[in-house]
Write a structure and sequence with these properties.
heterodimer, A: 211 residues, alpha+beta, Butyryl-CoA Dehydrogenase, subunit A, domain 3, 2 domains, three-stranded antiparallel β-sheet, two-stranded antiparallel ribbon, elongated, B: 205 residues, two-stranded antiparallel sheet, 8 helices, binds zinc ion
Chain lengths: 211, 205
């Protein structure tokens, strides 16, 4: 195996994001778009505006995370009495009714995972911006981790969808989706887009440039 | 560009390190020398296996969408739902964005994945070319993170526990088909040798 230990960027090559074909970076003005010779996808040395886009999405998601947790997720009408449940009151309900495992699953997916994603993405953004050369391998792992876990936050949205369909027992009981559901869905979508727009190669660019 | 077309030279997606990979036997995983990420995996009998799982998946999909999904019984009153009921209900409550999101992530994107695989792999198997195969495969790769059926299944479990004290929940045939579909789709996706597909699709264009 020939390992020259140089990045595509250093060699003037560019790897297609879609089909992985390595081709020579066309010499063009910055505003012109280059296309992959094999699949026709747009070629970028790095994801465009990666840091700005990731920051914007993370911050927007963090703001929406507040109403998502404060406002009710479901509104239940049982025999005339109305009760509103937030994400946390749902977790507490499961704890009180003895379903510890379910309480833990919902807490992890809805509260902990989004929070973890904010923390990791902000840490990665800052580490690139402050040109950290520490443990690039572990930071790449962290990035892959945030990419993989984010989607599980959709769990509560699906629970609401299923409850809304099932609990329609005439005048006996009804469940409606509360305003938090939309905010929460937006948080999940935005954090997923945020980790998609972060480019882990920026971590390694700093390591190469600083050494 | 001839020199690069062999694709033995590849840049790591995560750290951009260029490395040369010799032709690998299947199944094998090529990992990056610098950051350890997976560069690509070669698959055994990729075309046949992908097609077989995809066709099985499409059959299960039809069952999952058409048959009764969950039923709730409380004494004399009962309510039967299909996979689409929750989405319809959200739509009626005026939360269209949420209904669309659930529809996309649990129904349309998994269907799109299977149709795209069918559209790309039948020509690969029978050795003919179709239009838009490249765009379809790109789309297939892009939507992957947004296919979330397994999370929906976990949602069903949570809902059953939540409503367990209020009423009896009876799972229908569609739930079983849906559960199987998740495994079948996972097998179909893991049989796809994307390295090979790109070589074949981009081969003689
Ligand atoms: Zn790497």
């Amino acid at each position: 195996m020939k390992a020259s230990f140089a990045s595509a960027r250093k060699l003037g090559l560019v790897s297609c994001h879609d089909c992985h074909l390595l081709s020579r970076m066309p010499q063009r003005a910055a505003h012109q778009e280059a296309a992959c010779p094999r699949c026709g996808g747009e070629l970028h040395q790095r994801k465009p505006n990666s840091l700005m886009r990731t920051w914007a999405l993370v911050l927007a998601a963090m703001i929406l995370y507040i109403p998502a947790n404060v406002l009710p997720m479901t509104i239940t009408t049982t025999l005339g009495s109305v009760s509103a449940d937030t994400i946390m009151s749902g977790v507490i309900y499961f704890m009180h009714s003895g379903s510890w495992a379910i309480a833990l699953v919902i807490f992890t997916a809805s509260v902990f995972v989004p929070f973890l994603k904010f923390t990791i993405l902000i840490y990665l953004l800052l580490s690139v911006q402050f040109k950290s050369i520490k443990r690039p391998r572990d930071r790449t792992r962290l990035y892959q981790f945030t990419e993989a876990v984010g989607r599980w936050s959709m769990l509560d949205i699906y629970v609401v969808t299923i409850l809304v369909a099932l609990v329609k027992l005439g005048a006996f009981a009804e469940i409606e989706a509360g305003p938090a559901a939309i905010y929460f869905a937006a948080v999940v979508v935005m954090t997923m887009l945020a980790s998609e727009s972060f480019d882990p190669r920026l971590i390694w660019d700093v390591v190469e440039d600083e050494s | 560009m001839g020199k690069f077309k062999s694709m033995h030279q590849i840049a790591c997606h995560e750290c951009d390190l260029v490395q040369e990979i010799p032709p690998l036997p299947a199944p094998a995983t090529a990992c990056c020398l610098r950051c350890g990420s997976v560069l690509f995996r070669t698959k055994v009998d990729s075309i046949n296996r992908t097609l077989a799982w995809t066709i099985a998946g499409l059959v299960l999909y039809v069952v999952a969408v058409t048959f009764p999904f969950l039923a709730m019984k409380n004494g004399a009153i009962g309510n039967q739902t299909g996979l689409l009921s929750g989405i319809q209900q959200l739509y009626h409550q005026g939360i269209i964005s949420l209904a669309t999101l659930v529809l996309l992530t649990c129904l349309l994107i998994p269907l799109l994945q299977m149709l795209a695989l069918f559209y790309i792999f039948v020509p690969l198997k029978l050795n003919f070319r179709v239009k838009y195969a490249i765009s379809m495969f790109r789309l297939f790769q892009k939507v992957k993170p947004w296919s979330m059926m397994e999370i929906y299944l976990l949602g069903i479990l949570v809902s059953i526990v939540k409503l367990g004290k209020m009423a009896t929940i009876v799972p229908g045939l569609a739930v079983i088909a849906f559960g199987l579909l998740i495994f079948v789709l996972t097998f179909a996706l893991s049989a796809v040798d994307s390295h090979m597909v790109w070589e074949r699709l981009g081969g003689d264009s």
